[in-house]
Design a protein that fits this description.
Blueprint (H helix, E strand, L loop, with lengths): L1 H21 L12 H19 L6 H40 L3 H19 L6
Length: 127
Amino acid sequence: MKKLLATAGCLLLTASVAQADEKYSHFPSLDAPTTTVALCNLAAFNQKLQTIAKKKTLTPEDMVKVHELTYTLENAVIRLKKDLDSIAVDLEKVHKASEHLDLKTIQSSGKDYLTATSLLVTPKECS
């Protein structure tokens, strides 16, 4: 019980310090300016998160590391959400155009849709 209380106290102290520092700066994170960068960051940082999360117990340092990792993961997810929102719009245009036999829209929006989704389904080489 004492160990649990000590761990909780460390977490609260760490969270308090981190929260106070948030006014000035967050943990460093990687931006996701492109879909490829977002996917590469997801792959790399998911692996780091998995390594920590599969432990039977986590130290306060592990918890802080998870918190730090989430900043880069959130950037990647935000980028992919924007990409998927745009992809959904293009796909809907193609869908509606197919109902109206609109070849021009099928070709133009179809090209945009296929280009964007190819970034998601084709394996990328991350550096």
